[in-house]
Every structure is written in C-alpha cells, then in structure tokens.
Amino acid sequence: MRILATYSWATLPSLIVLGFFVWFANWIPQTRWEPPKLRVIDAAMSPAELAVLGQAIVRERGCLACHTIEPGAGIKGQGRGPNLDGLAARRAGGVEGGQATLVGYLTESLYVPSAHVVEGFSNIMPASDKAPAKLSREEAAAVVAYLETLGGTATVTLATLPDFAGAAATSATAEPAGDVPATPAAMLEAFDCLGCHSLVAGEVLVGPPFEAALLKAAATARGVDAEGYVMQAIVDPRAVESPDFPAETMPDDYGERLNAAQLYAITRYLVEGEGAP
Ligand code: HEC
Ligand code: HEC
User: Fold this and answer.
1) Which superfamily, per CATH, for 2-173?
2) Quick check: 12 pLDDT over 60?
3) Please, are residues 240 and 247 in contact by the beta-carbon 8 Å criterion?
C-alpha cells in the first residue's frame, strides 16, 4: 500500500523577519522553512527509512521554531521547548505516571502534548495533527522513528505506531480551566499565553511581546479600535497573522476556552498596558 502525504501550501510563513532579526538570528539555522515536498510514505518502509523522512518533516513543519537539537546542552537548551537531543535516551522508559514505553511517550507527545507537560516548560505545543504541522498518521510514524534516533535506534513502523488520534479532544487543553483565575495577569498565566508572549517590551518569544503601544499600532494600521483588534487576535488568530511570526501557531480555540468575562478582562489589561503582573 502506498499512501500520499498531502500538504497545505496556503500557509507557508515568510522567511523574512526584518523587525526581529536579532532574535531570529539565533534560530535561522533551525527555522529555515522550505516548501514542503510531496513524500510517499510506504507501509513497508523500515524504521530506519522512516527516520530519514521524519528528520525532513521535523525541519519542514515548524517543530524547530520551538525545539532545538543541541548536543550536550541538557533538556533546557536554547529553545522555547525541550532540547530534542538525547530525547530517546532520557525517555527510554517513557515517563513516570504516564506512557511506559519510548514509542508510546513520543507518540502521545505529538498528539496530546498536554498529557505530560515537561517540567520547566509551558503547555504551548500545538497537537501535531493540527495546524501548523498537520501531520498525517504516516508522517507521525516517520517523526516518531526520527525522534527515536535522537539517543537511540528507530523501531517504529506504520503498523506499530500507537493510535492517539482523537485523544486530544479529552485532553487538558480542551477543557476549560478548572480554577478560574481571578486577575488578568493570572489568566495570561493559566491559559499559557506567557509561554509565547513576553510581558517584557521588545522580547520576542514565539509571538510578539504584549505591549500596548504595539497592539494599538497594529489596530490603527488595520483601521480598527484596539480592543476590537485584540479580541479578534485572541478568538480568531488566523485572521490577523503577519509574516513576521510562524503561521498558525497561536491556538485558535481560545474563543471556546475563555468565557466572555475573561476575554474582556484580558483585552482591557493588554490594551491598557498595566505592566508586568
Ligand atoms: C510552539 C512551540 C512548539 C512547537 C511548534 C512544537 N513543540 Fe514540541 N514541545 C514544546 C514545549 C514547550 C514542550 C514541553 C512542554 C510539553 O511537554 O508540552 C514540548 C514537548 C515536546 C516533546 C517531549 C519532549 C521531552 O523532552 O519529553 C516532544 C517529543 C516534542 N515536543 C516534539 C515536537 C515535534 C516533533 C514538533 C513538530 C511536529 C513539535 N514538538 C512542535 C513546544 C513546541
Ligand atoms: C503557541 C504560542 C501562542 C500562545 C499559547 C498564544 N499566542 Fe498569541 N500569538 C502567537 C503568535 C505566533 C502570534 C503572531 C501571529 C501572527 O501575527 O502571525 C500571536 C498574536 C497574538 C496577538 C496579536 C499581537 C499583535 O501584536 O498584533 C494577541 C493580542 C495575542 N496573540 C494574544 C494572546 C493571548 C491573550 C493568549 C492567551 C490567551 C495567546 N495569545 C496565546 C502565539 C501564541
């Protein structure tokens, strides 16, 4: 059986990151986005063959916008997500209280990243079968095979990849926050906004920093008022994307996860620029 992997061309982010060049300079070796190539992933492929494709997929689908692969740097590394070097060695037995095998853990990490949030990191990783990576099952098998080689040997095949597709619907991210945070600052924390947006002026993480002046300028440029712009950016992030940031990266389900009071409170807080919490 031969299965064709398909890709969306519509959402390729631009390479040109003028305003934030200094920050991006650290990342350029990893974040050079190339047009995805059409790949044929064959059910008969060996784990080693899959791993070769998986390496290319990891580079092409934006994983390295957050992750680094830095030999000897420990789990922290320089990225917003864990250093993937040595991943297979440190997760050889899965994780305590979760998946007990390496392949189970890696596959769950792709489909349900919130199931086990690595200590010291925020819950900002998008599920890999959703935008922006949009991995098919075949591509996920290739990625898992590649991740196994980062400190180990590829073993997975298309037939043995565990099935986590659909599991995300019941995961922690899909649920409304249990403890309702009282202040806007606590909401930004509870909804993981601060994993991608800094409250420090000029500091670019995954998205732009929260600066009232920048938000107002973006609103003015679009001819809308600042509160309207910020609300739209939160509930319909695809509508306000700019080429300076990785496309389709901000979760697009905040409209469901935030209630109206939270949305208004966060919006007012960001527009009024009340400083760090
Ligand atoms: C927006 C940033 C972001 C993107 C894009 C992203 N990740 Fe992650 N990833 C994280 C963060 C942060 C963590 C740690 C928190 C957690 O476990 O969810 C993580 C955790 C992981 C882990 C577990 C690592 C460990 O040490 O246990 C794996 C494996 C992983 N990501 C693989 C991928 C792959 C493959 C892709 C691309 C398809 C990807 N990630 C895209 C941010 C990201
Ligand atoms: C996984 C990373 C991620 C998370 C989590 C995230 N964002 Fe974003 N956000 C982005 C990126 C990337 C952009 C830039 C989108 C673009 O312009 O293409 C963005 C853009 C925005 C903008 C528009 C900023 C501007 O200067 O125009 C606002 C406002 C915003 N986000 C608010 C939030 C809030 C509030 C939360 C939490 C409820 C949040 N974001 C969570 C990544 C994230």
Assistant:
1) Cytochrome c-like domain (1.10.760.10)
2) no
3) no
**Which residue type sits at 96?**
E
Q: Which residue has the higher pLDDT, 20 or 211?
A: 211
Domain ranges, ordered by start, for the chain: 2-173, 176-272
Asked if 199 and 205 count as a contact pair (C-beta separation under 8 A), the reply is no
pLDDT tens track for 139-198: 999 999 999 999 999 999 999 999 988 765 444 443 444 556 778 999 999 899 999 999
* Closest residue to atom 26 of ligand 2, CA basis: 215
Q: How many angstroms does the Cα of residue 113 sit away from the middle of ligand 1? A: 7
Q: Which CATH architecture has domain 176-272?
A: Orthogonal Bundle (1.10)
Hey, is 29 helix, strand or coil? helix
Residues 249 and 132: beta-carbon distance below 8 Å: yes
